[in-house]
Each structure stands twice: as C-alpha cells, then as structure tokens.
Design brief:
Strand content of chain A: over 45%
Largest sheet of chain A: 9 strands, antiparallel
Largest sheet of chain B: 18 strands, antiparallel
CATH class of the largest domain in chain B: Alpha Beta
Shape of chain B: elongated
Oligomer: heterodimer
Mean pLDDT of chain B: 84
Number of strands of chain B: 18
Number of helices of chain B: 2
Distance between the termini of chain A: 18 Å
CATH class of chain A: Alpha Beta
Order of helices and strands of chain B: HEEEEEEEEEEEEEEEEEEH
Number of domains of chain A: 1
CATH topology of chain A: Outer Surface Protein A, domain 3
Helix content of chain A: under 10%
Mean pLDDT of chain A: 85
Low-confidence stretches of chain A: none
Radius of gyration of chain A: 14 Å
Structural class of chain A: mainly beta
Low-confidence stretches of chain B: none
Radius of gyration of chain B: 28 Å
Number of domains of chain B: 2
Structural class of chain B: mainly beta
Shape of chain A: flat
Helix content of chain B: 10-25%
CATH topology of the largest domain in chain B: Outer Surface Protein A, domain 3
Order of helices and strands of chain A: EEEEEEEEEH
CATH architecture of chain A: Alpha-Beta Complex
Strand content of chain B: over 45%
Chain lengths: 108, 257
C-alpha cells in the first residue's frame, strides 16, 4: 500500500516480488484493478481510463476477452485467439489496445 | 480519514512539541561537572548523564503537572518523549530538527492514534481507532491529502483509493448482509464501474459517462443477461433479450447504505 507524489497503489506481490494484483489510481488518468501472470505480464485489467471503461483478460498468448470503447464511441466486446479477434458482439472487431501500454498510461 | 483527523494529529504534534519545550526548560539545566552522580535519587526531576556529563535522558514533570520522560541524542537534543496528558498517555519520537516523526497517543475515551509524520503539519500515515467508528488506516500525499485508506465502519470493511478532489477513484467494498464489489468512479465522481456480488447475484457493469458500456447481471426471471449499451440503449445482448439496466446511482447505494 503506497502513495507516491501522484499515484496510489494497493497491491499483492508474487513470490518473485513481481506484482500479482493491484488497485491503482492516478488522478487525471484513471483507476483500475490489474493482474499479472506468472511471467510478470500484465494480462488482466478492469477499470476506467480517461473516464472510459476497459476490461481485458488474456492468456499469455493474447487469447482472451476484451471490452472497450472504440474511437467512434461505440462499445465493443470481443474474444481473441492469439491476438486475433475470433468473435465480436457488435460484428465489428474491437481495436486491441497496445497490451503493454494500457497500464503504462496509468503508471507513468 | 477526514480533515479533522489531520487537525487532531497536528494538535497532538503541537502538544508533544510543547511538552518538549516546557520540559527542556524546566528540567534540562546543565548538571555541574563536579557534581557527584549518585546511584539512586529521589527527586522531582533527575537527569541521566553520560561519561562526558552530557544529559542523555531526563524525567520530570510538565508545566501542567504530568510526568514526562525524555531521551536525548548524543548532541543533547531531545529525540523522544513519553508522558501523560489530561487525555491519556503519549509517545513522540522526534527528528534532529525537533519535528515529531512518530506519534502514539492513547486517549481515555478509548480512541487511539498512531501517526508517521513528515513534519508537525504533514501526516504520512495514520492509524486511528475511535470507539464506535472502528479502525482506519490512511496514507497521505505531499499536499497532506489522504489518497488511500482502509477502514472498518459499522462492521463493513473497505479499501479505497481517492482522486485529487478527495472523491473516490476505486474501492473494494463489503457489507456482510448485502454483498461485496469492486467499484470505480469517473473524474466527475460518477460510479461507472462495478464487479461483484450483490445479494449473492453477480453483476458487472462498465460505462462511459453517457451510459455507453457493458452490462452483465441476472434478470428478475433468473436468467443471466449480457449486453452492450450505447447512450443508455441496448445495442446488443447475448440472449437476444435486452437486459434490464440497474438504476445507475442505486447499485452502490444498496451496498453502502
């Protein structure tokens, strides 16, 4: 549990002191729940970023679930297999966020 | 953790400083070099001195008649106080500049405070217990604003991160009689994301400010529903039946009230 100059965290760590699951908040950007896999990769998040909700839950090979808001404002929900959209709720493939960039936008 | 808590701890820091000042003035007269050092003394005040006759600890009374123990560093500066006050006992650890770093205070009314301070006016971490309110742990930023806190209020625990305006950002909430959830608020202070169980039924919603987003819940007939909403209208649902939207401002209230 920590408060830095701008951000606040409450986290649980893995054995290697990598993060396991964390609540993160940075005023002006957003807040989310984030989880990392055993390889230290950020692969699950649920939160609000710049007031827009996002949910993603991926295996290490980017197979998983993604919900976000597209650039045109429409909501998108999709299933991905190895990084490719294999199903989407709206019929439109949701644009994938840059996987390593989502949390960076909060944390940096 | 409210402003009154900060004010309370600042008041305690001030009292600790007053104790120290008054105590130093009253007790810390330099012992004479040729003074004989007895093995035991019976007195209203006494000093512990080192081999250089430097005072390192003293015991005496504050101006208002409360006993006080003070320990000094190698330069003779007071670095810690243990004493009593009209409200209860107090322990203060002081830095080289004379600022209270750590304060422990137990009040006769059953409340207690432990605080880590940047200086007398800025708390960094505070653990507080108030009879009837429950325990709380708060972390403060450089502007003396609480940014993270955990508390148990009336039996309901929560873990919370706050925005700059002191509104909630993201929280874990639990009410043993109702449910538990992760909840997040947007920059306008609107509750727009939740994942949890309410009355044993799962719920997930994640909305933009205009109620565009995702909703999963259990309908009144017991069927699960998953839908996408755009500006409050269902634009897709997994079952082909539009899920009923919960009252947006009511979900969290059902947990919190």
């Amino acid at each position: 549990m920590a408060v830095t100059k701008e951000k606040a965290y409450i986290g649980l760590a893995q054995n290697k002191q990598n993060p396991a699951i964390t609540l993160i908040s940075e005023p002006g950007k957003g807040a989310m729940l984030a989880a990392w896999n055993s390889q230290g990769q950020h692969r699950l998040s649920l939160g609000l970023m710049h007031d827009k909700p996002i949910l993603f839950a991926y295996n290490p090979d980017d197979t998983g679930l993604l919900f976000n808001t597209q650039r045109d404002g429409r909501p998108a929900l999709g299933l991905l297999s190895e990084g490719s959209v294999v199903w989407s709720a709206s019929g439109v493939a949701p644009e994938m966020p840059a996987m390593d960039g989502i949390l960076d936008q909060i944390m940096r | 953790m409210k402003a009154i808590h900060i004010i309370a701890i600042i008041a305690i820091a001030f009292v600790a400083g007053m104790f120290g000042g008054a105590f130093s003035e009253r007790v810390f007269a330099n012992p004479k070099v040729d003074e004989k050092i007895p093995e035991q003394v019976t007195a209203h005040a006494f000093h512990l001195v080192d081999e250089n006759n430097q005072r390192r600890a003293s015991m005496g009374f504050s101006r208002d008649g409360h006993p006080l123990l003070c320990v000094n560093d190698q330069d003779g500066k007071p670095r810690g106080y243990l004493g009593s006050s009209k409200d209860g006992p107090l322990l203060a650890l002081v830095d080289k500049a004379g600022e209270s770093n750590i304060i422990l205070k137990a009040n006769d009314d059953g409340s207690s405070i432990m605080a880590l301070m940047k200086d007398a006016n800025h708390a960094r971490l505070m653990i507080k217990y108030k009879l009837g309110s429950g325990p709380a742990l708060g972390l403060y930023d450089d502007d003396n604003l609480v940014k993270a806190f955990m508390l148990v209020k009336q039996g309901n625990p929560s873990i919370n991160l706050l925005q700059g305006n002191q509104k909630p950002a993201i929280s874990l909430l639990s009410d043993p009689q109702k449910g538990a959830m992760l909840a997040a608020w947007n920059s306008q202070g609107q509750h727009r994301l939740s994942l949890g169980l309410m009355h044993d039924k799962p719920i997930l919603f994640a909305y933009n400010p205009d109620d565009t987003g995702l909703l999963f819940n259990t309908q009144r007939d017991g069927r699960p529903a998953l839908g996408l909403l755009s500006e409050g209208s269902v634009v897709w649902s997994a079952s082909g039946v539009a899920p009923q939207m919960p009252a947006m401002d009511g979900i969290l209230d059902q947990i919190l009230r």
